[in-house]
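=== RUN LOG ===
request id: a7f3
mode: sequence -> structure
chains: 1
length: 540
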Amino acid sequence: MSEKDRENSLRLEEELTRIKLSSDSELRNKQRLEDENDRLKKDVTYWKNQCDRHAIERNLIDDSIFHALNQKPELYLDPESADGTTYTSLKRRCKVEPHTGLLLLPVEKVDSSKLIFDGVRKPVTATQLLDCGVLDKPTFTDLERGNKSVPEVSEDKKIPLKGTGPIAGVVAGSQGKMSLSDAKKLMLLPEEIADLLLAAQAATGHIIDIKNNQKLIVEEACAKGVVDVKDRDKLLAAEAAAVGYKHPSAAKPLSVFDAMKKGMVDKKTALRLLQAQESAGGVLDPNISVFLPKDTAVKYKLIDDNIRQALNQNPECYLDPETERSVSYETLKKRCKIEPHTGLLLLPITEKLDPSKLIFDGVRKPVTAKQLLDCGVLDKPTFTKLIKGEKTVPQVSEEKKTQLKGTGSIAGVIAGPMGKVSFSEAKKQKIIPPASADFLLEGQVAIGYIIDPTTNEKLTVEEACARGVVDNRDRDKLLKAESAAVGFRDPNTGNPLSVAEAMKKGIVDKKTALRLLQAQESAGGILDPMSVCSFRKRQL
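=== RESULT ===
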């Protein structure tokens, strides 16, 4: 070993010896402090016992109290954990304020008023959630102490805070997903069913824009064209179930139940809206904007026992799009498919034919299945079978032949050896009086067409004049009679008018109007110039 190595080794040994001596000194000091602490504890215990003995001697306490106190019962609550503790334990944690000598207990808590959660329609504080039972005391304490964060608890309480979501739209085979409003416009959903489902969306908090996966309030949905502006008022009425009904006698918004009691909403509607809310998470409290279980809702008077029992019966407040039979909202939700990337609930419906492409041949022009439904020529079951492909346009056309084509007009006359002759020819040949022929020609054209009995063709007045089927001198009066079929022109607006409307405006006299209408009635009913279908008098 070199001289330098020996010097280093010696230095290290000296350092180790110094460290050992220092460590031994620290151990002795620690032992001394522990002994001192034990002595002080014994002194405290001694003097405490002496005090307790004096208290016993002075009849301030008895032996049972003396022994109970010696058990150090945990009669106080730790502000940090809410666990039981002794008063002495709390005192030991106190800090002494230097300038006053006061004992101050340190606590570490977040201001609960700053613990804000995102409710269904507005923010809600942790204290409000504790008060209504959404948060339990341990969770609230963890929030205050910073052991849990608002986002963590929000995830745990997702259903009360946001719900499970309403039926967002429909999915129809190759036509894919679409909003309830679009499904209604395309006649894939009956109007009443779509309206009920849209109202359920609004009652649970928002209208769903399925194209952009956005939640919108009714006003936003109208502004963005997600719902029809014509539906605005009834959707706002349904939305009140989520945000509260306004009443001049109430200081704060009313729940659905309170609104029902004041006659602002009928019981059937109230149950329907509440059922939608319940299926989404519970009864929605409009003032704190969270979903609450029915039992809690009863406690806070959001519903009463009768309404709770009614909801427990699972009433059939909605309509099945496939059968149009009554069904509960929960039943429809269970049939929904969850869109994987959005989580939206989409109700599967049978793919249907586009009703705008179901074209029927009317008296003078094509007419759609939707127009025939609107005017009552088609009933709802027949319309549904058409769009489901269970019936064809030709089949239904045959069933509705009278309304679509009528039973026909008097086409001409048959005069002995001359055989069949048109009215114009019969007038020329003086087989029938001119006035009679003219009336019968007008009767023909008011029903829809001039008839050429020689070729069995139906002709417009212009065509009949061009072919010589009628005399050109009769053209103007026949065109006027033809207006009973295609509509009289309103001199102010240019819109087509029915015979009755034209009579009211003085375009045609009452006697002529009655004569033209009588001809129409005999052929199948009063002819609507807008849809060009015939209606029986009781349908008008």
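=== NOTES ===
DSSP finds 26 helices and 26 strands in the chain.
The mean pLDDT is 89.
=== END ===
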